[in-house]
Design a protein that fits this description.
The chain is an alpha/beta fold. It contains eleven helices and 13 strands. The strands form three sheets. Strands 3-2-1-4-5-6 form a six-stranded mixed beta sheet, sandwiched between helices. Strands 9-8-7-12-13 form a five-stranded mixed beta sheet, sandwiched between helices. Strand 10 and strand 11 form a beta hairpin.
Length: about 300
C-alpha cells in the first residue's frame, strides 16, 4: 500500500520504505503518470488539493484529471474525501481533502491538540478536538474559519506577506511583482537548506543564498550590490517577522477557540515554527513523513479500513 498526496506544486508519495516529494506543478502539464510509474503494482490510497490549479477551468475538471492520471497507474486506487470516506472515482468531496486525512489520523491519538501543518504554499491550522465538525468543510469554509492560511515556506510571493519594508531607515513600498518568494527569505535566514528549496525560483536562477539575496533585493527595485548583503538580510528579517506574526496570530485564535492544550507541527516549516509555540515537532517523531503527512495519513487510514 502506498499513500499519495497530489498538490498543485508537489506530488508526495509514502511507501512502507519511506517517503518522497516530487516537484510536479500541475499548471505546466505535470508528468504524474511518469512520476508514479515506478510504484506501479501497489495498492494506492490518494488525497488531493491540486484540483484548484489554474490550469483547470473548475475543481470538477481538476478532480477528474487527477483521478484519471492516478488510475492510469493504479486502476484500483481509493480516493479519500472530505466526507471521511474512500471513493473509487471522481466526486466533488475529493476536493482538498488532504488536510482531513491528517486530522482524522492524528485526532484519534491526540484529540487535545491543534495540528499546524506548514507546507510550501499553505498553512493548515486544524483543531482536532471535534473531528465530526471538520467533515464536509471546503477550502472556502476553512479560509472563513481560520483553518487555512495561504502562506507557506517556499512559494508565497513577498508582496503577499508585506506591503512595505524599512530600507536605510525609510518606509519603502515593495514592488508588486514576483521578484522573490518565501523560499528566498527562509534560505537567507537558514530556516531551510538549498536541498529543501524544491520549487522553481522566481527568476529560474539557482536556489542558493546568493541567488536568494539577489532576488530579494529586487522587491525594492534594487540590486544586491546597490544594497549590500546586510541590508538585504534585514529585508528577509522583516518579511519573516510579518509571516511569523500572521501564523502565530491565527494559531493563537484557534487554540483559544478550541481549548486545546498541545500544538503538533508538521510540514517543511515544522523545525522553524514548533519552537515558537513550544509545540511538538512531528519531524522528530515521524522523520521525513512529517513533510508528507497527508500521504502518510491516508495510507494509514486505508490500511485501517480495507476494502
Amino acid at each position: 500500500m502506498i499513500g499519495i498526496d497530489v498538490g498543485g506544486a508537489n506530488l508526495k508519495v509514502v511507501t512502507e520504505a519511506g517517503s518522497a516529494i516530487h516537484y510536479c506543478p500541475l499548471w505546466t502539464g505535470a508528468p504524474i503518470v511518469d512520476l508514479l510509474a515506478p510504484y506501479a503494482g501497489e495498492e494506492a490510497a490518494v488525497v488531493m488539493s491540486g484540483e484548484l490549479a489554474d490550469s483547470f477551468s473548475s475543481k470538477d475538471q481538476g478532480i477528474r484529471f487527477i483521478v484519471d492520471q492516478i488510475r492510469a497507474v493504479f486502476p484500483g486506487a481509493r480516493f479519500y474525501g472530505t466526507d471521511g470516506r474512500f471513493h473509487a472515482g471522481p466526486t466533488p468531496t475529493l476536493a482538498a481533502a488532504n488536510w482531513l486525512a491528517s486530522a482524522v489520523w492524528l485526532g484519534r491519538m491526540h484529540p487535545d491538540s491543534v495540528l499546524l501543518d506548514i507546507g510550501s504554499t499553505t498553512t493548515d491550522i486544524i483543531p482536532l478536538a471535534d473531528l465530526q465538525g471538520l467533515f464536509g468543510l471546503t477550502d472556502l469554509g476553512r479560509l472563513q474559519e481560520g483553518y487555512l492560511l495561504y502562506t507557506g515556506m517556499l512559494r508565497t510571493t513577498v508582496p503577499a506577506i508585506v506591503s512595505a519594508v524599512e530600507v536605510h531607515g525609510r518606509r519603502t513600498p515593495v514592488a508588486s511583482e514576483h521578484f522573490a518568494q518565501s523560499g528566498d527569505v527562509h534560505l537567507i535566514l537558514n530556516h531551510i537548506g538549498a536541498e529543501e528549496y524544491t520549487t522553481e525560483t522566481p527568476d529560474h536562477g539557482p536556489a542558493t543564498r546568493q541567488g536568494a539575496l539577489r532576488r530579494l533585493a529586487r522587491i525594492v527595485c534594487a540590486d544586491l550590490e546597490e544594497l549590500g548583503e546586510e541590508t538585504v538580510a534585514f529585508l528577509a528579517d522583516q518579511v519573516w517577522e510579518a509571516q511569523r506574526t500572521q501564523v502565530m496570530t491565527a494559531v493563537d485564535a484557534i487554540v483559544q477557540k478550541s481549548g486545546s492544550r498541545r500544538i503538533l507541527v508538521a510540514g517543511i516549516g515544522a523545525p522553524t515554527f514548533a519552537p515558537l509555540f513550544r509545540g511538538e515537532d512531528l519531524s522528530i517523531r515521524l522523520g521525513s513523513l512529517a513533510d508528507t503527512l497527508p500521504a502518510h495519513a491516508v495510507r494509514e487510514l486505508a490500511l485501517q479500513s480495507p476494502g
